[in-house]
Design goal:
Methane Monooxygenase Hydroxylase, Chain G, domain 1; about 0% strand; mainly alpha
Length: about 140
């Protein structure tokens, strides 16, 4: 599968949506396997970005295998951590910026169970109103 993004970290940021929604939006600290899976997926992707795809300025455009030197291993680990931290913060900022829209869609889903694309647009535009005391 080939994915195209304007920013290499865009897809990586998406991986943090579920853990962030649960912990920062819904304030629910219920442990769920989806968060673990998302974090593992993000870590695998960040690792591939640094080790295989050459998407790290510090490491460079080279393939780095598992048996690299201590200095290179430390640099790789730092770059992976930087990618994950930046992506997490980007996702957190997006959820904060668009919280109103997120809550509108959540209320709409609680009320109707499913929404079409045009219904979501109408909800966000304010042309349709949801009366839901579910949240």
């Amino acid at each position: 599968m080939t994915l195209y993004f304007k920013s290499p970290t865009a897809f990586l940021s998406i991986e943090f949506r579920n853990p962030l929604v649960y912990s920062h939006i819904l304030y629910s600290f219920i442990l769920f396997s989806g968060a673990t899976s998302d974090i593992q997926s993000a870590t695998r992707l960040a690792t591939a970005m640094v080790r295989q795809y050459g998407l790290s300025e510090k490491v460079g455009f080279i393939h780095v295998d598992e048996k690299c030197s201590g200095t290179m291993k430390q640099t790789v680990d730092e770059e992976i951590n930087t990618l994950l931290s930046e992506s997490y913060n980007r996702c957190k900022a997006l959820l904060h910026t668009h919280r109103r829209e997120l809550e509108l869609v959540a209320k709409g889903l609680l009320e109707y169970e499913s929404l079409s694309g045009s219904e979501i647009v109408d909800l966000i535009a304010g042309t349709v109103y949801i009366v839901c005391l579910c949240l």
